[in-house]
Amino acid sequence: MTVLPTRLDTGGPEHTANRAAMLTRLADLDTEHAKALAGGGPKYVDRHRGRGKLLPRERIELLIDPDSPFLELSPLAAWGSDYPVGAALVTGIGVIEGTECVITANDPTVRGGASNPWTLRKALRANEIALRNRLPLVNLVESGGADLPSQKEIFIPGGALFRDLTRLSAAGIPTVAVVFGNSTAGGAYVPGMSDHVVMVKERAKVFLGGPPLVKMATGEEADDESLGGAEMHARTSGLADHFAVDEQDACRLARRIVHRLHWRKQGPAPLHPVEPPRHDEEELLGIVPGDLKVPFDPREVIARVVDGSDFDEFKPLYGASLATGWATVHGYPVGILANAQGVLFSEESQKAAQFIQLANQRDIPLLFLHNTTGYMVGQAYEQGGIIKHGAMMINAVANSRVPHISVLMGASYGAGHYGMCGRAYDPRFLFAWPSAKSAVMGPQQLAGVLSIVARQSAAAKGQPYDEDADAAIRAMVEQQIEAESLPVFLSGRLYDDGVIDPRDTRTVLGICLSAIHSAPVEGARGYGVFRM
Ligand code: COA
Questions:
Q1: Where is 35: in which H helix or E strand?
Q2: CA 252 from chain center: how many Å?
Q3: For residue 113, how far is its CA from the centre of ligand 1 (angstroms)?
Q4: Per residue in 427-452, pLDDT tens?
Q5: Cα(315) to centroid of ligand 1, in Å?
Q6: Is-above-0.85 flag for pTM?
């Protein structure tokens, strides 16, 4: 074993200040998460309960194995938008009868559970996670369908929801729909396209057109139950495979369905026994400085996340501003790339490209720990080929076929975000710490660049430059970019799968790695042309 030492002075002023700053951010994050938990607010929650119905997270709790964890994904979806935080949908990974599944649940207390543009994005992300990791998908349905005022944003792209269900089925990945309430019009295709369907007695309403629409279209008089009730679908249309007497029974039936899948994971099993890290995970709170310009050693993070704090570093003396090396997390082998000094130079880029190729040759998943301000700029670096070398790293990341997980610990700026497997590079999962910031560049740099461009433009036109206006614009731009770089903002836009407490990193990674190993783990055997 190569146990990482620690140099953290956990009683010192720096650690204490970093920890205090992180705890403040976590408290702020809790406030935002509470908004998602509150759903549509007390009025709609009380009305829902008054109808004898369970809330989406209560349905999930009944569905998953007792006392097992549920990794909720993107709870802050729609943050900062015109729609309620959480986007009227709960998604995540949970274990049903010993099988990891992707679970989604509409929140009917939020505008009748109707899908707005953020609900759609969140649902499509859940489908993608199910498909790429070969995880059975269980949808707990109760939704008013399309959020009608925003139909222009969702009607056309929304077709992907039903397409995904049947593609999952075609790929041999089971899909289960449990209908607790309304699932009308387009929504009727959720049970329509699923492999297994459960409907709740006197609650499920599954029809292409409800009574008023039918009356308008054909003049026929019909009630909810005869058009789309659970009993009708179980006895007459055959759309329901299982008739549940109540919500509890529906969750029990869904558990039996998953039990009978006899789902086999196709990835390699984890190594045993698993040793916890030698250093305390609690100390993860005090590593990232409040000011991201101050560097920190990511090995202190690795030492508190990987099994036995055991990390074999690759090329430690070369390209030292990026740490690369091998470890296991909950018994799953991983290759880790972690920014050590913020900036990526040519050496770091080449080292990363080589390391990623090694992981692909060995079929080992990769973990990217971000704290980078991007690739180095300047005459010497341009002449030294920083573009070519950055391109090598980006080529390696883009064409790598082993699963990737990214965790934004601190900065994740510029093309560095791409090279470190940012969202556009399809990591299987991407999480941010509350201390993370991501943007095309830092707020001051961005405001400064805009100011230089404006100054040059004025000079070219022979116009005087208004310094007071410049200072005001700079301050405004800096503020805007700062706000847009924050994790809650980025999470609201579904640019990550959630903002997590640093202390939960090992657990979250363990759940994700286990889920990832439902699918085969195979590296790329071919790459694009590396520009040397
Ligand atoms: N789009 C936008 N808002 C919707 C909505 C939709 N599809 N469905 C419901 N809402 C809103 C309601 O206007 C209401 O808002 P308000 O409280 O501010 O007035 C809120 O959500 C709750 O709806 P309500 O009808 O009071 O709830 P309910 O639980 O009694 O009934 C439904 C829920 C979904 C059965 C019912 O609202 C409904 O039939 N909606 C339309 C369904 C439909 O035809 N959708 C088109 C599918 S493509």
A1: helix 13-37
A2: 28
A3: 8
A4: 999 999 999 999 998 899 999 999 99
A5: 59
A6: yes
